[in-house]
Amino acid sequence: MSHLTTHLPVEPEFEQAYRELASTLENSTLFDKHPEHRRALEVVTVPERTIQFRVTWENDKGGLEVNRGYRVQFNSSLGPYKGGLRFHPTVNMSILKFLGFEQIFKNALTGLNMGGGKGGADFDPKGKSDNEIRKFCSAFMMELSKHIGADIDVPAGDIGVSGREIGFLFGAYKRQRHLWEGVLTGKGVSWGGSLIRPEATGYGLVYYVQHMIQYATDNQETFKGKRVAISGSGNVAQYAALKVIEFGGTVISLSDSKGSLIVRDEADSITPEEIYLIQQHKVERKYLSELASTDAFRERCSYVPEARPWEHLDKVDVALPCATQNEVSGPEALALIEAGARYIAEGSNMGCTLAAIEHFEASRQNHEKGKSIWYGPGKAANCGGVAVSGLEMAQNSQRLTWTAEEVDNKLKHIMHTCFLTGVETAKSYTVNAEGSLPSLVAGSNIAGFMKVAAAMRDQGDWW
Ligand code: GLU
């Protein structure tokens, strides 16, 4: 860590993401086999470029508002910078550097030609009118448009940025640059967007976990009959929940920043109709607590205010954190293990703290195959979103639109390959106790890192 911390401001989230990657590389045989890769790690840790700018805009009362805008162009060895924009009051350089760093290796794992980047603003969309959101997006793009382009840097959505914001941002770019090009992904389907892009992160996560379950049980089990705890209730959580239900699992929780909705009866599940209601509610930027008190939910679900679901579950098989970073702490990981969770996979970026990952990884090694706890890290398990963004870029380049089935099949293939890459790389580069499952966090980190390091070396970024 020394080269990271001596001359830099404190960046806790970025240091955590770095530590997670570096520790898995250190604990593998990678540096024994290729000691020169330590230099690659030192170089890849420094963003190619960071941009920070002022955004001023006018609220509905005619008052002046000012926010901080950012874009971290972290690594372009595999393709144009690619990664979402986050609008949330907590956004700062440490958070965007952690997200951009994760994105480099995640994008590498998709097998598509995308570099890594991330951006956003400390703007809070909650409580803002559509008019204010449009004005903010336009002001934000006024500066961002100078730094992006279809072959330079292609942003997309993240927390606080979805279809509506992408539309406003795209329109602003087009007007400011006088250029219609695939500069953003997550666009509307009639103006260059890809089918399945909104669903892709959640669907991809469930496809990935289905492979985990099948591998761990020698194809004896699937999602069928499994109790699945999900946190969050945004885009990722919604489509993960719908796919779990389609695959025969039951969804026992959803949450937002103010509390958790938990199904009371053990055999019961949140239904697709309820998820559509939540979807509508989110568009109106409302909280789950309002829905929890309506007839549709009150009878079957309890609402736990100011809490994440993990410590409030009696029996759970699969846990899918789909809200935000550090949403599973060490004690919450232990509570999940206690409640019977066997598979934990992140729909969110860095959903688990380092302490939580340590608990999951220790339980992976302590058990026989078939009884282990298995952790799927976000950069592998949630890569379906950016993968379909890559497919949207491919369609834009061809000026074609593929069918939903074509895109979904490509997504399934990418998630399967990403899973197998993690498994095979872990087997080659880590020492595993006899019969225990391979570490997906180590395998995915090593595979993503090696691919990027090799491209950087070819391009003269290190030697
Ligand atoms: N924000 C998403 C992620 O964390 C998607 C990024 C993209 O599609 O560019 O991967």
Helix run count: 18
Specify the CATH class of the domain at 200-376: Alpha Beta
Q: How would a textbook summarize the main sheet? A: 7 strands, mixed
Number of strands: 12
| Average predicted confidence as pLDDT | 95
CATH topology of the domain at 200-376: Rossmann fold
Q: Can you identify the CATH superfamily of the domain at 200-376?
A: NAD(P)-binding Rossmann-like Domain
User: Which CATH architecture of the domain at 200-376?
Assistant: 3-Layer(aba) Sandwich
Gyration radius, rounded: 21 Å
How much β-strand is present in the residues?
15-25%
Helix content range: 40-55%
Order of helices and strands: HHHHEEEHEHEHHEHEEHHHEEHEHEHHHH
Termini separation comes to: 21 Å
The backbone outline, from C-alpha atoms, is globular
Instruction: Extract low-pLDDT stretches.
Output: none
